[in-house]
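Predict the holo structure. Ligand: HDE.
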Amino acid sequence: MAKEEKNPTNKSLSKIDDLSVNTENGEGQFLTTNQGLRINDNNNSLKAGERGPTLLEDFILREKITHFDHERIPERIVHARGSGAHGVFKLYESLDKYTKAAFLNDTTTETPVFVRFSAVAGSRGSTDLARDVRGFAVKFYTQEGNYDLVGNNMPVFFIQDAMKFPDLVHAVKPEPHNEIPQAASAHDTFWDFISLMPESMHMVLWQMSDRAIPRSYSMMEGFGVHTFRLINSKNESSFVKFHWKPLLGVHSVVWDEAQGISGKDPDFHRRDLWESIEAGNFPEWELGLQIIPEADEHKYGFDLLDPTKLIPEELVPVKRVGKMTLNRNPDNFFAETEQVAFHPGHIVPGIDFSNDPLLQGRLFSYTDTQLIRLGGPNFHEIPINRPLSPLHNNQRDGYMRQTINAGITSYHPNSISEGHPLQAKAAEGGFVSHAERIDAVKIRGRSESFFDHFSQATMFFNSQSKPEKKHLIDAFIFELGKVDRVFIRERMVGLLTQVDQTLAAKVAGGLGLPVPNAPEKPMNHGVSPDANENDTEPIKAKPDVEKSPALSMEGTIKNTIKARKVAFLVANGVKDESLKKMKKALTDKGAMVKLISLKLGTINTEEGNQVKLDGSFLTEASVLYDAVYIPDGKKSIAGLMTEPKSIHFVNEAYKHCKAIATGADGVAFLKETFIKEIEEKKLNMEEAGVITDGNADKFIGSIAKHRFWNREEFRNVPA
Ligand code: HDE
């Protein structure tokens, strides 16, 4: 018997590769049908006479249209809108003390990764800038099999038990009678549900914060959310929370801007990720671990198994253990980004689950949904989902099977193939579940340690800076303002009284509702109607820390302008040096510069050189940029001033608190804009992020600061 037959191996996969059609449209290749037949005329169907009816015989037309008719697969029920990229993960130091996972032990290899970022609620074609949680899913192709870290850009979740997930998603999706609104939580059913679910309060504060409208995927943190376990080679377990820390810092846009971007460029995040990678500005994150010894399981005022709680970094610091770099765009969106299938249950030896009831439910859901989304049980064979490690088992057949398994045994135990494929001992890398002792009564219920729904919501609110708090309050007023039923708004304000009285009062004020003067007793729908109400009432415990600075974006990295987009407003007569020097200074630091003018084409500089333009005031908008620069050249500035859209461009950038710079000539332009109010109020221009001496270093410093929130206190730009 041939070795192949005894031990079916991945070799059979390579047979398929040999057979696979070369789909690259390279030189000298002919157009063919799916059967390889060369096509002679791809423009006309087969007809009975030039003006006659089309013939059913036309198998080429039928094949083409049939395939086209079936091009769409169901979109993901959640996280439908997303973008992906390839990259690598490199470990800084071995973590063998905590885990035996090879990719977390070996500092010499680079582990390939594929990452998909997503928004949760909207459909595949919805805007990137919806107020929403973002998915942050990473597939590590390790030597021991695929490990998927399927996280979000917020460290907690709305609900404590998987049982509530379909309810949550039904509530946030467009309302079923009219399918409105798309990609938005600002509607009655969402807030009806949330206002009846006090456990969602902490997450809702994150969702109303600017974290829900990121500037870029590469400027978001990522979180594994649940507590997981690390297991070392001695089978010792520690608890762990996973973090991704972006090296560009954590930055967001403002809500008014997000709404503008949604119209001007709904692909804003997708484009940003794509362009950054194409430009060599590879997005980078450090993998961070919060490691909690098993002995400390009950040390904190919250339950480690409760996914509505985070561990403040001040209590357990985040240990940065390696770096992920995204360095390659996919070749084909559908084949890779759409067909990638993540699963929190894809783990490797050295990593294990906790009993978080949300995580436990997820372990069922992902394969289940992918079976239908990807059309059957063989989606692990789609190239983007294939592990790099060898794959042998007795699973066979099914829709779209690619592997041609050789041999006659597809069962275990067998003797015909001498028992192959073999079970692996733990020492040989076989996965063994952590032997956790469980001695329990079967119960449909929730632990009392999950009943504190408010203390971390309050901690989050208290940890925000003044502008962040203001944005958060405005977001609540916006969202609840879109709710038609007044009793839902009132119930929500009542719940906010449990979080913070000022927050509740300001939101009530914005909604024209009476301000409750004491915390209102919330309803608890997390329990069965048979439960004793007094034993199950939500409580507000004393938080482990009152404030966690790590939860504010205020203190984030502000020393880089890599991947930032800067608009240069120019017209005929712009000064060569003022344009070129600034452009070089910014692009040297990794920023992207676009030249925008009254119309497309080219302009002539004062020195008579021709410069190519990247956009016009019709094709571009300030919301798509991080900063604006107006180079010198009196004629150029006079030209710009003939176009009111250029004034609007700068006013809007000013309104959104972005860095703005001009040379000496541009000061006349600024006087036409609302920026003049800084001077009128005798405030310092540079402290408000406006540079008027064309100094590149100062401008770079201002862009790196991201936004000048101090302007919000006095600026009066109407629209
Ligand atoms: Fe998911 N989630 N989820 N989720 N999730 C899916 O799987 C689900 C949860 C997350 O880019 C689905 O293949 C349940 C938390 C991301 O392809 C589905 C519960 C977190 C992605 C599913 C949760 C996530 C998904 C839809 C509660 C952060 C996109 C399509 C028990 C830790 C992955 C799919 C990608 C996708 C179920 C809660 C993250 C339906 C039942 C908490 C990033 O299986």
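Residues 76-79, 82, 116, 118, 135, 137, 150-152, 157, 162, 165, 225, 340-342, 358, 361-362, 365-366, 369-370 surround HDE (CB under 6 Å). The chain has three domains: 82-385, 456-529+537-551, 565-714.
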